[in-house]
Design brief:
Oligomer: single chain
CATH architecture of the largest domain: 3-Layer(aba) Sandwich
Strand order of the largest sheet: 2-1-3-4
Number of strands: 10
Order of helices and strands: EHEHEHEEEHHHHHEHEHEE
Number of helices: 10
Strand content: 15-25%
Radius of gyration: 23 Å
Length: about 260
C-alpha cells in the first residue's frame, strides 16, 4: 500500500477549507456531510485547533504557500488536484450509513475511483446499514453466545460470508440477525488449513485460499513464503514461523508452505 486508509471523526470539529469556486465547494459539502464545521480563514482555523485542511485556490503559488504554512502548524493537508502536495486524499464514498465504503487511488484518477464506486453501488443492498445497526445492537448478546474472541470472529465470518445466514450482499439480512443468533452453533476451538503454494506470486492464490487468509486468526508461514503473500492475511492475525513445535493456537489457523526448489 502507498497510503494508510483511515476514517477520521470530525463531528462538530473545525476543518479549514480555503478557496472559492467549483474546486472548494465540494470540499465544504464533504466536511459538512461528515458533521464538521467549515472554517474559511486560515488563522482562525489554527486558533480554533483545526486538525485537517483543504486548500483549493485557483493560484498554484497560493496553494503551495498555504499548504506549507498549514503543514508547519501540524495539520494534515489536502491540496485539490495537487497530489504531490497532499498528506491525504479524499476517496469516492459509497454511503450505507453507518457502513462507508471508500474507494481511493492515491490521487491517480478520481474518475476511476468514481466508476468503481458506481459498480459497487449495484452490489450493496440498500439496507446494508440496517444490518450493521442490528449487529451493533446485538453486540452484547453475540459476546454472551460466543465468549472467546476467536470463536466469535469465526461465527461472524460464517454467518456473514457468501451464502451465510446474514450475508451482507443479500437484501433482508438485517431481519435475520436474531434468528441467526438463536440458531448459531459454536465453531470448533481450532480449524487448521494448509495451503501449499504453487508460486511466490500472490496473484496465483485461488479465491478460496485468499478467503482463508483473510479470515485467519493465525498464520504459520514457511520462511520462504514472501511477505506479499503473508500480508494478504488480516493485519491483526497472529504470525508464526513454520514448523512450529509448541501447540497450535486456537481459532482458524492457516499454514503456508512453499514447493521445494
Amino acid at each position: 500500500m502507498q497510503q494508510l486508509p483511515l476514517f477520521h471523526s470530525i463531528a462538530k470539529q473545525p476543518v479549514i477549507v480555503l478557496g472559492e469556486g467549483e474546486m472548494a465547494e465540494p470540499k465544504r459539502r464533504l466536511v459538512q456531510r461528515a458533521g464538521g464545521r467549515v472554517v474559511g480563514d486560515l488563522q482562525e482555523g489554527l486558533d480554533e485547533g483545526a486538525r485537517l485542511a483543504f486548500v483549493a485556490h485557483d493560484d498554484p503559488e497560493m496553494c503551495e504557500s498555504d499548504a506549507i504554512r498549514l503543514r508547519r502548524a501540524g495539520l494534515l493537508v489536502n491540496v485539490v488536484d495537487r497530489p504531490e502536495l497532499c498528506d491525504f486524499t479524499t476517496p469516492s464514498i459509497l454511503d450505507r450509513d453507518p457502513v462507508l465504503v471508500a474507494v481511493g487511488t492515491g490521487g491517480a484518477s478520481a474518475g476511476l475511483a468514481k466508476q468503481l464506486r458506481l459498480r459497487l453501488e449495484k452490489l450493496l443492498p440498500a439496507d446494508l446499514g440496517q444490518l450493521a445497526a442490528r449487529l451493533s445492537a446485538a453486540r452484547e448478546a453475540i459476546r454472551a453466545r460466543f465468549p472467546g474472541m476467536a470463536e466469535r470472529r469465526r461465527a461472524l465470518d460464517d454467518a456473514l460470508g457468501e451464502g451465510g445466514q446474514i450475508d451482507p450482499l443479500e437484501q433482508g439480512s438485517a431481519g435475520r440477525v436474531e434468528d441467526w443468533l438463536n440458531d448459531a452453533e459454536k465453531p470448533p476451538a481450532a480449524q487448521i488449513h494448509e495451503i501449499a503454494l504453487v508460486s511466490d506470486d500472490p496473484e496465483d492464490l485461488t479465491l478460496r485460499q485468499s478467503r482463508l487468509l483473510g479470515m485467519a486468526d493465525a498464520v504459520l508461514a514457511d520462511p520462504r513464503v514472501p511477505a506479499a503473500i503473508v500480508n494478504r492475511a488480516r493485519a491483526d492475525a497472529a504470525r508464526f514461523g513454520y514448523p512450529r513445535s509448541s501447540p497450535m493456537p486456537d481459532g482458524l489457523v492457516v499454514i503456508l508452505t512453499m514447493p521445494e526448489a
